[in-house]
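User: Predict the structure for this protein chain, please.
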Amino acid sequence: MESTSSFGQGGEKTSSVAELRRDARFQVNVPEAYRVALTLGHKTLEAVCTDYSPFGLGLRLELKPDLPLFSIGESVDLLCDFHGSKFSARGTVANTRVERGGSVDFVRLGIALSRSAEVVRPAHVKRRLSRIQMNEAVAPLVYVADELRLGETVFAKMTDVSQGGMRLLIDRHPLPFMEKQRYWFDIVLPVFGNCRAYARIAYVRREEAGHRYIVGCEFIDGGEEQELRPLADWLFYAHTSLSRGDITEAGFSLKHLSDCDEEYRVLVSCSDSTHAPVQHRSVTEDTQPTLVDVLEFSHACGTETYMLRADFQGQNQFIQVRSISALPDNENLRSSFWKCFLLFAMHNQIKKIGLDESFRRTTFFIKSCSEAVNESELAPERLFASNVLKYSLWRKLYGELRHREGFTLPKPNSLMRRWAWF
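Assistant: Here is the predicted structure, written as structure tokens:
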């Protein structure tokens, strides 16, 4: 490797690495907020970052008489502080030049990161859990929830997932994701609520036939079961192609489900949204109307379909049950429907459930609930009250959902304990 021995004399050297950059650089508008401690041998220098990519950094140092000499290809250790987000890296000097002008001269360094996040999992390292593949067209949206280094949100698509981690697809690389760096990720699940996961970056690499990035993430400590509950429920209730066994093989806990829930499986889907605001009973005159999603909770039984339709207002945490077609009707099917409906309410933090008069006259409602229920609105917790759901459904749902978080279930009294076999 050639060396630059003429910093004090205004010399310049450039390597082919700088001429053939593997990626476009992102310019830093306020370099002072992106500081880098550059360690060369036993000497530590203070520099600022002017641009970066996953594969390299552009640094600027003030030219001083005691500045050491840099050689092309020389290894350097970096401790970066980007707007308060700190990470370490290792790289080599790719190019150098001196910028003259004004009252202060600077040395510009191009650093090729040898320990960027461009890490590929070794072939002999096998995944502990099988991954569930996602269709990119309907895959959940994921974004970084940490304070971002560029002050903008990083959006990604989830392409596969297990309890051990997930793989994301990002259109561009606005952050210097480094191996072993940790971030909070918010996973936006279609229809079935959101969840937040704490994950470690395992690798970042470019697509072979494109310009997007693939980011491998490992959930910290295998992922907290409590944090990933909405994700597990969404996989079961929104994917007809996935069996309960497929989801449990990926490491997700579905302890609240029974064999009859799989046999009488309810799927949640969102049909076309209406752009006309709907004024519900819980919406006051001071409340801004919001768009309403039409939800369908359906179960296919041969050629017949059992379907419940409801309007959902996310901003007001309100769901209005409109109608239900209940052709095949039995207690196990009703139990599966109520369980799916209540889990949806938990994950979406539903505060009120509106019941249309036509819905309360259906066979489904009469067989599920007590005749004493005449309210047009119910809080989700009220469905577990002894005078709302029939005892046969109540004890089954209470026993399986009492450990779930989302809202507080009422404590059963002594009579209810005997009914629920506690």
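The chain has three domains: 3-113, 132-228, 255-279+288-420.
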